[in-house]
């Protein structure tokens, strides 16, 4: 999948009004995801994506940061500049497109995350997720 196709799919699935908003959602989601992954998983995923997208997965380094799903969503929301419920919906869209664009990489990433992250991987979600205070 090429860069414009990836961003266009995120824009469509996340119901975003612009290409720029979709880029922001991708950047925020992938940079936060990279901080959560271990064992070179982020770099392996980046290698399967267009360079303009994969670059958001580089540079986390070190041990993976343990974040609850709620904290992960709040961090993405802060980086994207949206409210947490919107960020949860955008994360799902980015992960869906990521799954379409990579061969099995999404399942390897999902396996590294606790079961509490499963709602973020559910296709067709409305973006509703309970966020702890």
Task: Present the secondary structure layout.
Layout: H1 3-13, H2 19-36, H3 41-47, H4 51-54, H5 69-80, H6 84-101, H7 105-112
Helix pairs in contact: 1-2, 1-6, 2-5, 2-6, 3-7, 5-6
In words, what does this structure look like?
With 133 residues, this protein is mainly alpha-helical. The chain has a single domain (3-121), classed as Globin-like, CATH 1.10.490. The protein is 59% helix and 0% strand. It has seven helices and no strands. The chain has helices at residues 3-13, 19-36, 41-47, 51-54, 69-80, 84-101, 105-112. Helix 1 (3-13) crosses helix 6 and helix 5 (69-80) crosses helix 6 (84-101). The longest helix has 18 residues, at 19-36. The protein is globular and about 35 Å long. The chain starts with a helix and ends in a 21-residue tail after the last helix. Residues 125-133 have low confidence and may be disordered.
Number of strands: 0
Structural domain count: 1
Which architecture does the CATH hierarchy give at level 2?
Orthogonal Bundle
What is the fold named in CATH at topology level?
Answer: Globin-like
Class based on secondary structure composition and strand pairing? mainly alpha
Q: What is the CATH top level name? A: Mainly Alpha
Q: What is the CATH superfamily classification?
A: Uncharacterized conserved protein DUF2267
Q: How helical, in percent, are the residues?
A: 55-70%
Radius of gyration from the alpha-carbon trace, in angstroms = 13 Å
- Major beta sheet summary: none
* Average residue-wise pLDDT: 87
Strand residue content? under 5%
Unreliable segments of 5+ consecutive residues: 125-133
């Amino acid at each position: 999948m090429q860069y414009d196709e990836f961003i266009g799919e995120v824009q469509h699935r996340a119901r975003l009004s612009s290409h720029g908003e979709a880029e922001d959602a991708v950047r925020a989601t992938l940079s936060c995801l990279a901080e959560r992954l271990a064992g070179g998983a982020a770099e392996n995923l980046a290698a399967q994506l267009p360079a303009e997208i994969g670059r958001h997965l580089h540079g986390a380094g070190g041990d993976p940061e343990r974040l609850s799903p709620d904290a992960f969503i709040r961090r993405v929301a802060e980086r994207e500049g949206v409210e947490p419920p919107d960020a949860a919906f955008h994360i799902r869209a980015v992960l869906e497109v990521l799954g379409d664009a990579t061969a099995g990489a999404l399942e390897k990433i999902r396996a590294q995350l606790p079961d509490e992250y499963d709602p973020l991987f559910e296709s067709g979600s409305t973006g509703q997720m309970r966020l702890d205070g």
